[in-house]
Amino acid sequence: MEGEKADKGIKFKKSENFSEWYTDVIIRSEFVDYSSVSGMMVLRPDSYFLWEQIMNVTDRLLKENGVTNTAFPILIPERLLQKEAKHIEHFKAEVAWVTHGGDSELEERLAIRPTSETIMYESVAKWVRSWRDLPMKLNQWNSVVRWEFKHPTPFLRTREFHWNEGHSIYATEEETIRERDVILGIYEHVLKDYLALPCIVGRKTEQEKFAGGVASYSIEQLMPDGWAIQGPDWHFDGQNFAKVFNIEFLDKDGKKALAWQSTYAISTRVLGALIATHGDDRGLVIPPMMSRIQVVVVPIYKTDNRDKVIKAAMVVASEIGKKSRVHLDDRDDVSPGWKFNEWELKGVPLRIEIGERDINEGKVVAARRDTLEKTDIKIDAVGKESQKLLKNIQKSMYKRAVNLMKSMRSTAYSYASMKSALEVKKGFVLAPWCGSDECENKIKEETGAKITNMPLDQQNKLKGNCIYCGKQAKHMANFAKSY
Amino acid sequence: MEGEKADKGIKFKKSENFSEWYTDVIIRSEFVDYSSVSGMMVLRPDSYFLWEQIMNVTDRLLKENGVTNTAFPILIPERLLQKEAKHIEHFKAEVAWVTHGGDSELEERLAIRPTSETIMYESVAKWVRSWRDLPMKLNQWNSVVRWEFKHPTPFLRTREFHWNEGHSIYATEEETIRERDVILGIYEHVLKDYLALPCIVGRKTEQEKFAGGVASYSIEQLMPDGWAIQGPDWHFDGQNFAKVFNIEFLDKDGKKALAWQSTYAISTRVLGALIATHGDDRGLVIPPMMSRIQVVVVPIYKTDNRDKVIKAAMVVASEIGKKSRVHLDDRDDVSPGWKFNEWELKGVPLRIEIGERDINEGKVVAARRDTLEKTDIKIDAVGKESQKLLKNIQKSMYKRAVNLMKSMRSTAYSYASMKSALEVKKGFVLAPWCGSDECENKIKEETGAKITNMPLDQQNKLKGNCIYCGKQAKHMANFAKSY
Q1: Which phi and psi (to 5°) does residue B272 adopt?
Q2: Which CATH number applies to B409-480: 1.20.120.1220, 3.30.110.30, 3.40.50.20, 3.10.100.10?
Q3: Which of A88, B25, B218, B308 is the most exposed place for a label (fewest CB within 10 A)?
């Protein structure tokens, strides 16, 4: 038993060696696994359940907003992918090419979709004829392949990832732009209220925007090592793709007009931020809203009182199960302590322990995964109290993450203080920037920090001169080292 | 307007030219579309919604049965795919091969999954260690690619299709086999009660079984041209893959044992059967349980009474919307007649018409899509009555399909009567068969009919000698021409 226990133990401390800790914990907890395809991973049941939760809530909100789901082919002909110059320029280095069907060489190479703009918009051009067909809000949930050559990290950089790709077509620019806050609002809601992750929302710079679009907006998360990671995004495509793919319609006056478009996505990458933000040296910590098992009941018994304890544990589990996803761990061949370690490793938010003495005292012990606190709760109230605890855990996990984020954010009005903030506080430094590619690149070169995004609300924040060149600043920008 | 209307009209009659009707109706109704990848189609919102409904109900039932979802890589290394000889033998002619990542040639070709046994079982072999890890009931919802060279037909034969692939690993043969009726029961429920499709359940012959498995069981549907189409299936894999992939575990006695496995799937192909079975010369007919729009409300008005009628229609739609998925078609620029045609083409199960005279009489007109019958219903009871009608439509669509199926089934005890049944009644002929490949092949060669499957309950049915060779029959078998 000791051997098994040791085998499950995490070998690294999060605070000492974050990146080793990260991969160690997600493999050992049976959350994901490597596969025999380099750079591609397996989402095991616990992690895929999280992704399903994200899909379910996001999908419901998108549908309430008039979005309809579709499925376009997984393969895209090379000539189609090449239609938008900047778009192919960005993606061509990382396209996986299909060249053969069975033994036959294909006449034209086909790309596994790195993203589906080109194949979707070719169809959309056929479908959109009149203003009556608009807006057309299409979406798909699928996986895409991008043949990254950098070192892969589960969730953060993999050659296949899962996402939604929303593609909207509007009659006017105003309507398109109005969509931005709706979509980013949905994503923010999912991240904050389900994944317990704070969000930094803002606009990407010209150099960092989506290839082929006009403007990009992102939600950035912060990893505990102080590095930023880009989460969901929304892109304003203007009429760029409409021009190339000829997406025209007859407007209300019977005149030909060019459509306006947007694109947006949330991906499995957010699960990387979730693990990194909430996990600790004992393993994963999954927010209650997201966890496949929300409460695990662990009976504590010996041979002579087994029946009595198991019976009581079953009643407790069934009571909790009325409102929560519960699991009764009644395995006889591992000890309670072993079970505690295992469920802590897997990050189940709440553990209920019940032994004979507890039963006699009419109580159970509730152990929170987030704080590791233990409290007694009355058996009679176990359903209600565990519900309350789960809500509490969800809330306080978010609060803790917000505080962590706050402790790693600063504002700087000089290059020296920005560099020192990056050293000391790590994380995000908000600083005035002149808007030039040159300053952006120089700062990145010299400090390793890039502009992740620029806050949407600039009016109340813009102050000072560009920290690099000293010229008039155009934007306040969030600088951070970034995955 | 007339021009538009004509454009929407279906050019073929279902009874006269089924296959032209089939593709015409699913394109014109905007259900699916062709894409620029030959053999791959686009699932537009109405068809994808149907697939989502199938996924939702099936997934819920699978989860109740202890199945957990996962996501394995989309690509499979060639060496892995080759591990099971019969398996690769079957699939190699239709594998889409990825040979390049960006500009780099890969060291080893990667197949886009035609099915995921090989990549999944490699992981499973690592995960399964003890009897405590079993059963392991894994599933994924994804799409697969099989590079068919035959003429593609939307849903029935395409180079990409969507499905679930369930893969279970058990400790014993008995448990594995017990799963069969659970899974086939779930699929039958989905087909009958949601898609309104009757099912012929049975075992596949040795020649028709899944490549690499021990025994296959299928649910067959009947197309209106009398051809069978295979629907969902369940495969008993025995220990074949376990041997090849080394899926071993320590049993309760601490001894090494080899695992037992099964595989099962339902695919978008069933949508082909749904369209073919229920559609008519006016277009699609979608069963109420499956339709994205269940009730469409069409107001009938002129300029001078528009406001009054629209207002009443909104009240009606809101009342119906409390229980059903409703759409109010308040477009001003197309006539009610045009709208009727369009919604009939799209197969919306129930249409509510409301004009000024109806309002004055306190009623609306309800038009059923399946029978095209019109009845008056009281405005006060429009919610309840439309609910009732939808249930009624669902039921009678299934009944009609059952009757159609019955009219195309027969039993034959001689080769002559079988051939005549195939001529006259088309559809399925149940006949005694000796069990030899030779007779099976000869019959197929001479009549075009293959053995789709053999009823599970043989005891009460087996009678007579093999219709081809006259020897003792071993099975009653369903013969049919098959897609």
Answers
A1: -65, -45
A2: 3.30.110.30
A3: B308
The residues, any chain, with a CB within 8 Å of residue B63's CB and separated by 6 or more, are none
Helix (H, G, I), strand (E, B) or coil at B325: coil
Check if B44 contacts A (Cβ < 8 Å).
yes
Say if the Cβ atoms of B162 and A76 lie within 8 Å. no
Helix (H) or strand (E) holding B273: helix B269-278
For residue A286, the one-letter residue type is I
Q: Does domain B293-391 have CATH number 2.30.110.10?
A: no
Architecture of the domain made up of B12-278: 2-Layer Sandwich (3.30)
* B45:A138 CB<8 A: yes
Nearest residue in A to B143, CA atom: A74
In the numeric block, the tokens 């060249």 are attached to A99
Shortest alpha-carbon distance between residue A297 and chain B (Å): 18
Looking at residues A286-308, what average pLDDT do you find?
97
Q: How far apart are CA A397 and CA A295, in angstroms?
A: 16
| CATH, range A9-278 | 3.30.930.10
The CATH code of domain A293-392 reads 3.40.50.800
Helix, strand or coil for residue B443? Answer: helix
Query: Domain extents for chain A?
Result: 9-278, 293-392, 409-480
Residue among B44, B8, B255 at smallest CA distance from B130:
B255
Query: CB distance B119–A41 less than 8 Å?
Result: no
- Within 304-333 of A, beta carbons closer than 8 Å to B belong to 331, 333
Distance CA A340, CA A365 (A): 13
Edge-to-edge strand list for the sheet holding A228-238: A68-69, A136-145, A160-170, A260-265, A228-238, A215-222, A200-203, A450-455, A475-480, A428-433, A409-411
- A96 touches A158 (CB < 8 A): no
* Model pTM score: 0.95
Identify the pLDDT of residue A457.
85
Find chain B residues with C-beta within 8 A of A147's C-beta. 101-102, 104
| Neighbouring-strand partners of residue B299 | B354
Closest CA to B269 of B447, B138, B146, B383: B146
Query: Using CA atoms, how far apart are residues B470 and B479, in angstroms rounded to an integer?
Result: 17
* Alpha helices in A236-381, H assignment, sequence order: 240-245, 269-278, 306-321, 336-346, 356-360
In angstroms, the CA A149 to CA A463 distance is: 40
d(CA B306, CA A437): 57
Question: How far apart (Å, rounded) are the C-alpha atoms in residues B317 and B293?
Answer: 12
Per-residue confidence in pLDDT tens, chain B, 483 aa = 333 444 567 889 999 999 999 999 999 999 999 999 999 999 999 999 999 999 999 999 999 999 999 999 999 999 999 988 888 888 888 999 999 999 999 999 999 999 999 999 999 999 999 999 999 999 999 999 999 989 999 999 999 999 999 999 999 999 999 999 999 999 999 999 999 999 999 999 999 999 889 999 999 999 999 999 999 999 999 999 999 999 999 999 999 999 999 999 999 999 999 999 999 999 999 999 999 999 999 999 999 999 999 999 999 999 999 999 999 999 998 999 999 999 999 999 999 999 999 999 999 999 999 999 999 999 999 999 999 999 999 999 999 999 999 999 999 999 999 999 999 988 999 999 999 999 999 999 999 999 999 999 887 778 899 999 999 999 999 999 998
Quick one: which of A313, A303, A293 has its CA closest to A353?
A313
Check for a shared fold between B12-278 and B293-391: no
What does pLDDT average to over chain A?
Answer: 95
- CA–CA separation, B397 vs B273, rounded Å? 13
Q: Is the pLDDT of residue A6 over 70?
A: no
